[in-house]
Amino acid sequence: MVSEQVKSILKYAPTILIVGFVLATSYSLSRMTWLLVEGDGAVAQAISTSRAPLKPATVESFYGRELAGWGLFGALKAEKKTSSSKVQVKAPDTRLQLTLKGVYVAPIEAQSSAIIADKRNAKRYLLGEKIPGGVTLHEVQSQLVILKRGMKYETLRFSEPNLKAIKKSKPRVSSMPRRRPSSANRGIVKDIRSGKINSVQDVLNDYGANPAEQFAAVLLEAGMEPTQDGGEAGLKVGASAPKDILKTVGLRPGDIVRSVNGFPVNELEGDDALLREILTSAHAKIVIQRGSRRFTVNYPLPQG
Questions:
Q1: Which residue in 241, 284, 273 sits closest to 28, CA to CA?
Q2: Is 19 a residue whose pLDDT tops 90?
Q3: How far apart are CA 39 and CA 16, in angstroms?
Q4: How many CB atoms lie within 10 A of CB 225?
Q5: Which of 2, 29, 186, 244 could form a disulfide with 212 if both were Cys (CB 3.0 to 4.6 A apart)?
Q6: Is the CB of residue 195 less than 8 Å from the CB of residue 9?
Q7: Over the stretch 132-186, which tens digit does the pLDDT of each residue have?
Q8: Residue 52 — very low, low, confident or very high, per pLDDT cuts 50/70/90?
């Protein structure tokens, strides 16, 4: 029998085990940042998204406070080398009141994207999409983007303070203070149950120093396994997944997480800009497959 205290603690588990783990596993391990969130409010009723009729499904409500542990600015992936025959355009700095928040330079140029903020509203744009101010996104580079206005071009760069923030981000993570004994001898699921983890900051203090290694261990502990069932990438809930937490989350062994906010799990790999777009949205819409059925669960992502 799970105590009321443990049930209360497990309210934090859905987002930790679903949103955090899905995004984290999909993140390039070499550039991983500790991404953990806590939900706030009721989870929406599941909605059918498959071709066949589905039965509604619900997940228990859960509560929380904040989103933490991710850097915001800067180039997020090394730019793919382009051929010398690529046409260089004349593009003076734009006068538009826009802020470049993040870029993703994809191996296939047409799949590159950027997060651009108009005042306080940040949004991810693909090449060719319209941006406030009468321009479209024409090109994405590692430190800037090229905007197109009619037959003319403009450059939007990362601001200097933001670039400085990038250089400081790695030492800050690697020197993360650890208030408790080494997490290697414990486990995040155990710490959630025992109450040692009560906030995002607790997680960052205890598990944020070596994120790549910690995430691999956490995934294994949570029983989430990469899968290609049906030729489609996903994260499968394995038999070793904690039963009490699965019950709280509303998942069962064999369930497969297929996508987040409409993006397949495999498309999230290395796409830092896309991950940040999801984190800055109001909800994370996660598609789960159970047997031949699929349903969608909305997890709230409070912004402060």
A1: 273
A2: no
A3: 9
A4: 17
A5: 29
A6: yes
A7: 999 999 998 878 899 999 999 999 997 754 444 333 334 333 333 333 444 444 4
A8: very low
**DSSP three-state, residue 8:** helix
pTM, full prediction: 0.39
CA distance 27 to 63: 25
Q: Summarize the confidence of residues 118-145 as an average pLDDT.
A: 87
CA distance 124 to 113: 7
* Tokens 């997020």 belong to residue: 76
What mean pLDDT is predicted for residues 231-249? 75
Report angle CA 289, 274, 267 to the nearest 5 degrees: 45
- Which residues are paired to 256 by β-bridges? 236, 289
Angle at 303 between CA 235 and CA 222, to 5 degrees: 25
DSSP-assigned beta bridge partners for residue 99:
117
